[in-house]
Amino acid sequence: MEGLEDRSSKMIRDCIQFQGYIPGKSIDEVKKKYGLKRVVKLASNENPYGASPKAIEILKNFKDLHLYPDPSYEELKQRISEYTGWEFERIVIGAGSDGILETLFRILIERGDEVVIPIPTFPYYHTLTRISCGREVLVKRGRDFRIESDITNAITEKTKLILICNPNNPTGNDEREETIREIVESTKAIVFIDEAYIEFADSRFDIDEENVIIARTFSKAFGLANLRIGYARLPSWLIKYYKAASTPFPISTIAEKVAIASLEDINWMKSCVKKIKSERERLYKEMSKIVKVYPSQANFLFFETGIDSSLVTEELMKRGVIVRDCKNFIGCKNNIRVSVGKPEDNDLFLECLRDVYDSIDGNSGMW
Amino acid sequence: MEGLEDRSSKMIRDCIQFQGYIPGKSIDEVKKKYGLKRVVKLASNENPYGASPKAIEILKNFKDLHLYPDPSYEELKQRISEYTGWEFERIVIGAGSDGILETLFRILIERGDEVVIPIPTFPYYHTLTRISCGREVLVKRGRDFRIESDITNAITEKTKLILICNPNNPTGNDEREETIREIVESTKAIVFIDEAYIEFADSRFDIDEENVIIARTFSKAFGLANLRIGYARLPSWLIKYYKAASTPFPISTIAEKVAIASLEDINWMKSCVKKIKSERERLYKEMSKIVKVYPSQANFLFFETGIDSSLVTEELMKRGVIVRDCKNFIGCKNNIRVSVGKPEDNDLFLECLRDVYDSIDGNSGMW
Predict the structure, then answer these.
(1) Which CATH architecture is the domain B53-265 placed in?
(2) B116 partner at 20 to 30 Å CA-CA among A142, B10, B166, B181?
(3) Do A9 and B99 touch (CB under 8 A)?
(4) ipTM for the complex?
(5) What is the pTM of this model?
(6) A252 contacts in B (CB within 8 Å)?
């Protein structure tokens, strides 16, 4: 059916020249493939301690599966307003921060519009730009992966959106407030600040301007990745367009109630973050003895593998640890991202990492 | 911030000239507003008997809120394949059939592309076309609301998508197989057949061509509206583009498991459908004595109000019944859509409807 495929559109012809999201291997797949009893997954930046028990409790009593959600999400927005200090009226709820970004692309980007993306960063930014037929303007980060002021040279009259992940996935660094402020002030384009990992950062800043959007998620620190609950603060003028373009029911009532329960049990989240940060520092110290690892303000660590990162990923997997090979992250060459797990999981990872590099040293011809 | 708003895009400037989805009033709001003790909502075509108890049971044991879903949705697709008889490889899962249609718009529609929509129909078709800056080509349905062959006159070389809801929301009629086949054969555009209500229809047909997509949902007959689980059969050539353009995790693992449990307990769905169809016929007969009501192949009835439909909607609400005023459905003038509820809910609706029209006859000056 060449004719149909050819006629069918923009995207089919020229925008979708890439693969969509490629999920990592599951624990069960790896167990089966390598005949392993114990496999840990440190590939998706999940909270290893799980959701608040009070959130899990919500599921036990929910029966109204047959009713549509109330799309105002009023109570959740109220709680988010208390948690963040953001104005209630400017908060929107989405299917993960991904869902919020999808809606923004629907509002803002059409063929040829420029989207500025500092690399390396979260791959979905590239995907969304391409399927919207936007033009990606890629800007390399500085030596410590922080965004440099020279990014403003890449911003033109055609720039509609600038995507900043802070702390950045996969590199783990945070950004300098003055640089972000400089970007915001240099342009009328919308600066989208993705704070998915902000709960793990030591410091934070708030830039509230007419062209700034801050997005967050319950998927990471709150341990609710399965339900995909995101939220954002929009400038007031954008709200009506967002509401018009958003999917009518981005999250279920179950998700709303679970998120509310998680905010009510904020100490659970805080104690998870504390444990994860403490393990992150231990892991950083231990990894530094083996590889070039970068400091992190998130719940993962990013390191140079020296040799082919796919080989190291595979060798770790053979030993029972699933990590994220960053080979397909634009701007990465030989890097791996490893999530901070529970102490025993991190121990296994460290042990395997040592073993992999020991065997490299001993068998350099094998690599 | 006029400058920013003005610059920000296509859509902000010229596509979003409409309101987004306007949800109906909730039961609690109506109770409060009119001081009522009993209010029934027959406005959203929900299954009044709820989800299968086995589906609800799933929620009680789910704890892995912190883990991302497995985006292959393999087991669910396998069960859907058994339920529908469709090839496994051609099935995709989405956030409701709405979510599937959103992804298709991302693949297919850009500024100026034509989308043919027989009216009146599901309002979200209009919303999606407009936010994609597509050009709506509206075609009036025939006397019984069925699509007529002359729709093919509206299909041009610029047509990318033809949206057919069968049975149709809000009118409740089904379509003639020969007409749909004629449309499919007349064009290379994609014909999207939305079978959200197919379980309530007396007969069905399957057209399987390279330009046909059939979408369905668990929201209606299966009573899972809260979780937004849709699925579709795509032509094989479209799968790779769909996968590239789809959001990575359209449904949660909870939703997947609940849908699987619902398919395993298919008799629950069948018994709900049987009761709803039987009530639909009773309601049709009784309503016919009061208003001009149309036969329905779905879980709702569509009727002419004679006078201003917003007034009738309001009068019904004052008496404790929430229905859907079709005033904002393009192609409707004075129509209401009422969902088939439980027998006692339908009794209340019939009583209120009689009362409203009695008071009209008695107080014609009041209206």
Answers:
(1) 3-Layer(aba) Sandwich (3.40)
(2) B10
(3) no
(4) 0.93
(5) 0.94
(6) 226-228, 252, 255
